[in-house]
Specification:
With 282 residues, the protein is α/β, with parallel strands linked by helices. The protein is built from 8 helices and 10 strands. Helix 2 (111-121) crosses helix 3, helix 2 (111-121) runs parallel beside helix 4 and helix 6 packs across helix 8.
Length: 282
């Protein structure tokens, strides 16, 4: 079991604190053989506060992952800006961590070497990197598996390695693109609980992409509903459920059900639009 502070992370940041992340008129176009250009993201505006857990949800293919790729510096915006700590992003930023949908582990490295890779790349010495890696391996519940290789681990265990691999670098901004979508329902719930414990201990700001509305509400301080492509912010909802949260219990609270109904009412129109486009194209 992971060790974590149980304080409400939102209490660590004053409301007037400047945002860790600011997106202004963010737009992304890709070349399209039929039309010349296809707009995937249009005039996207968002701020994420220090220590905030912010979740993007929208229909499949709406452009959520493209937004995340621009925030990570993996894609350049066609127009608009990405500010991290009030500085315009130019390429990748060492203060930002990214947990991908599929594990980005080195298959030829052990668990210990995978987790130590980040500190080594950032200039830490071998002993310091291994010490940090061992600490985070314990924190994600993998003590005793240090010398195992990724192919020897279950899907949930590999995801724990991926979390340790990211958190060991103590990112100020954590980006997560449907990180638990490939897991079975039970493992997914356990991993979400453990993610919250890690986040509370680290105090990072999080921008998390999911298709799962229950997961979005259970994790978030704020849920952002995204339109069908091109992606833009349709509406945002403050999730005023108390922390710390147990995902197994919080779904039965009347306020959770109320939030689910309100957000789904907003989201379902965009899902229908995206579905109609997909069936027409087919």
């Amino acid at each position: 079991m992971m060790r974590a502070s149980r304080a409400d992370p939102r209490s660590r940041a004053a409301p007037a604190s400047p945002p860790v992340l600011g997106l202004t008129a963010l737009t992304k176009r890709f070349a399209d053989p039929a039309t010349g250009a296809r707009t995937v993201v249009a005039d996207f505006e968002l701020e994420v506060a220090p220590g905030e857990f912010c979740v993007l949800i929208g229909p499949s293919g709406c452009g959520k992952s493209t937004v995340l790729s621009m925030v990570a510096g993996l894609e350049a915006p066609s127009s608009g800006s990405v500010l991290v700590d009030k500085v315009e992003l130019a390429g990748t930023d060492p203060r930002t961590g990214f947990v991908f949908q599929h594990d980005a582990l080195f298959p030829w490295k052990t668990v210990l070497a995978n987790v130590a890779a980040g500190p080594r790349f950032r200039g830490a010495g071998r002993k310091a990197s291994l010490d940090q890696a061992r600490e985070w391996i314990v924190r994600v519940g993998l003590e005793g598996f240090e010398q195992h290789y990724p192919h020897q681990l279950s899907g949930g265990m590999r995801k724990r390695v991926a979390l340790a691999q990211t958190f060991v670098n103590r990112p100020g901004l954590l980006l997560m693109d449907e990180p638990f979508s490939a897991l079975d329902a039970q493992t997914r719930q356990i991993m979400a609980d453990e993610l919250l414990a890690l986040w509370e201990s680290l105090g990072a700001s999080v921008l998390f992409v999911t298709h799962d509305l229950e997961e979005a509400i259970a994790l978030a301080d704020r849920v952002i509903v995204i339109t069908a492509r091109p992606a833009t912010v349709k509406e945002e909802f403050v999730i005023d459920l108390p922390r710390p949260r147990s995902l197994r219990e919080i779904r039965f609270q009347p306020r959770f059900v109320d939030l689910y109904e309100k957000i789904w009412s907003c989201l379902s129109d965009e899902v229908r639009i995206a579905y109609a486009r997909a069936t027409t194209a087919a």
